[in-house]
């Protein structure tokens, strides 16, 4: 059965973001043919995952569940007879919840929707499932399902519990009390959007507190919080009197996503008395500690993530760490004798790998980053999965050719290239399809330290030439004018915040003169197909705040008629025109994280989902809903 679904969001009209989220029901189960060209997108997430089980001391490790896709976030039932886990076996990007016997057999689906369903845990008597879902609003909430009647209840998406609907917050990682009366969870409800590095950065940090609520929806209250900190993955003590969680600085919820920064940060394992709020720190010292769980009356087991000390630890004196390479999200059996976990594979996906689609008329396919199409139907992209060189190919991935080889001709620090911080980025076609222009140099966090220049090369790989001098400024993200005579690009100067020196510039290809178009924290300019407007992402300081807000703007090529298309307090950006110029595809964080940030690996903005809007900013609607970062979209033209 083809389970592709469609999610839409009703437009509020105009460019303002007062949109109302209204997911539609599943459409026809088996559409005959796709009426529209595929959507290409890049997904930053693992390519496969298997669930393993071992003795608590690490011996007798064995694979328990492997659907050939992604299986993860497993937990035991209270009687130890069942395993509940999340799986994408129904389509990559479509997370549903399953359970299986403790030996991995008799797998059955418990929760099925086109939205994200994750982090399921069974009640102590096995009659109910608490889980995280983005159904009914596209933001994460804690839901309950009665496994006998099938009845569903949204516990947190209700008045008095749900935070400000305009903020990108959510509810995560539910945990049942031993008596089955209460559910603990983490949430960043009513916390403002804040970027890293004192609020100036693009990526979102996460400030979580710990809450409890009764299974009938009453008694909601906060039990632990700390300003500018992230408190996550709460679990109850065996007697139900305490809740244990990890605690780290909110700023570190960005650092933990970067392998180079992870070894430099720490967290501690903390518990509180549910009745009195009495606080105990059970650990100290370096290391990022996560996934705590009581495995005895006093003993707490947890994972240390990253670095040489990675492994499973215990608060019991003298207990040696358990080293199981590559494990994630451990969960111990009720008797503490076994541990279940998953291991991710990051081998990458093939170009045009089918993905779960939310549109009955359009296939979704994986692509390497920033695909763009010529008028004769050839695609160009950055081969970031390789060495960030420039490749061209047919839309189906055939006849692939390398037209600029970074390893051979780039002259870049290959260490930075390997880390994704340097390369040949954002290649685009000239209108006549004869040239490809791109930026070559240092990117992202390295842009203020290293140079980058505009390059162009003929479609056959010859004639490579520099268009700008990388010793003057970091130039990137170029785009041709409709007549092919000019190129707009982003200019960046050093590490400071002198926005007058930064902004968008336009290069005249005949005279090689450069003129200023904008001054500010502007990026990713793209000329509309008809040449009438230039779209870009702008970061602006929020009034009376220390951090920036990123939104999508357009401007005429002569610098007049500046228009703002998005206004949400979360970041909107990475926008591209659709081939016909009538719509804009973009990445948005407005619905927040799908999980606690510290559980992610090797990604920077896992909350980012894809949206589409009309060229004037109206009709904004979400078109992906996965646990992973979806980015660099483009429709394949017919």
TrEMBL record:
**Which keywords does the record carry?**
Signal
Annotated signal peptide: 1-28
InterPro entries given for it? 6-blade_b-propeller_TolB-like (IPR011042), TAT_signal (IPR006311), WD40 (IPR011659)
Pfam families in UniProt: PD40 (PF07676)
Q: What protein name does the entry list?
A: Translocation protein TolB
């Amino acid at each position: 059965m083809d389970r592709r679904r469609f999610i839409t969001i009703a437009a509020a009209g105009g460019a303002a973001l007062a949109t109302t989220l209204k997911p539609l029901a599943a459409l026809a189960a088996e559409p005959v043919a796709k009426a529209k060209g595929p959507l290409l997108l890049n997904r930053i997430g693992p390519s496969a995952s298997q669930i393993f089980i071992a003795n608590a001391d690490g011996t007798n490790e064995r694979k328990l569940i492997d659907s050939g896709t992604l299986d993860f976030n497993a937990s035991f039932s209270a009687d130890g007879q069942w395993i509940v886990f999340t799986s994408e076996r129904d389509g990559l990007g479509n997370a549903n919840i399953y359970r299986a016997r403790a030996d991995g057999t008799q797998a059955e689906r418990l929760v099925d929707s086109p939205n994200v369903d994750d982090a399921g845990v069974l009640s102590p008597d096995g009659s109910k499932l608490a889980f995280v879902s983005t159904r009914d609003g596209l933001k994460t909430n804690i839901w309950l399902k009665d496994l006998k009647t099938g009845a569903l209840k949204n516990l947190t998406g209700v008045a008095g519990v749900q935070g400000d609907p305009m903020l990108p917050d959510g509810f995560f990682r539910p945990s049942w009390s031993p008596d089955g009366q209460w559910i603990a969870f983490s949430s960043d409800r009513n916390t403002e959007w804040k970027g890293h590095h004192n609020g100036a950065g693009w990526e979102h940090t996460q400030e979580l507190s710990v809450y409890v609520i009764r299974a009938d929806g009453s008694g909601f209250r906060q039990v632990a919080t700390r300003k500018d900190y992230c408190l996550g993955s709460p679990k109850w003590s065996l007697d139900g009197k305490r809740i244990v969680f990890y605690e780290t600085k909110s700023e570190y919820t960005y650092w933990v996503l970067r392998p180079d920064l992870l070894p430099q940060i720490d967290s501690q394992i903390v518990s509180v008395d549910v009745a009195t709020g009495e606080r105990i720190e059970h650990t100290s010292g370096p290391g990022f500690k996560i996934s705590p769980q009581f495995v005895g009356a006093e003993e707490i087991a947890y994972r240390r993530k990253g670095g040489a000390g990675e492994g499973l630890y215990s608060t019991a004196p003298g207990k040696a760490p358990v080293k199981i390479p590559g494990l994630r999200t451990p969960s111990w059996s009720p008797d503490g004798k076994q541990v279940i976990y998953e291991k991710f594979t990051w081998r990458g996906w093939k170009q045009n790998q089918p993905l779960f689609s939310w549109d009955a008329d359009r296939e979704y396919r994986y692509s390497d980053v920033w695909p763009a199409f010529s008028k004769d139907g050839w695609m160009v992209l950055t081969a970031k999965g390789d060495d960030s060189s420039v490749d061209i190919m047919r839309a189906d991935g055939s006849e692939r050719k390398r037209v600029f080889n970074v390893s051979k001709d780039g002259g870049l620090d290959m260490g930075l290239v390997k880390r994704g911080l340097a390369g040949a980025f954002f290649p685009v076609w000239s209108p006549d399809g004869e040239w490809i222009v791109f930026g070559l140099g240092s990117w992202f966090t390295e842009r203020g330290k290293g140079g980058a220049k505009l390059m162009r090369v003929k479609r056959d790989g010859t004639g490579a030439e520099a268009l700008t001098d990388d010793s003057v400024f970091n130039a990137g993200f170029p785009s041709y004018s409709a007549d092919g005579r000019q190129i707009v690009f982003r200019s960046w100067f050093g590490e400071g915040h002198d926005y007058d020196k930064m902004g968008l510039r336009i290069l005249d290809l005949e005279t090689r003169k450069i003129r200023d178009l904008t001054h500010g924290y502007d990026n990713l300019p793209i000329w509309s197909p008809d040449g009438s407007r230039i779209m870009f992402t702008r970061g602006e300081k929020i009034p009376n705040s220390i951090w920036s807000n990123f939104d999508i703007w357009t401007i005429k090529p002569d610098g007049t008629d500046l228009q703002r298309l998005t206004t949400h307090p979360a970041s909107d950006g990475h926008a591209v025109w659709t081939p016909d110029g009538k719509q804009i595809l973009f990445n948005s964080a407005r619905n927040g994280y799908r999980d606690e940030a510290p559980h992610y690996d090797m990604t920077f903005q896992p909350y980012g989902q894809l949206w589409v809007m009309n060229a004037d900013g109206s009709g904004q609607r979400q078109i992906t809903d996965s646990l992973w970062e979806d980015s660099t979209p483009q429709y394949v033209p017919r």
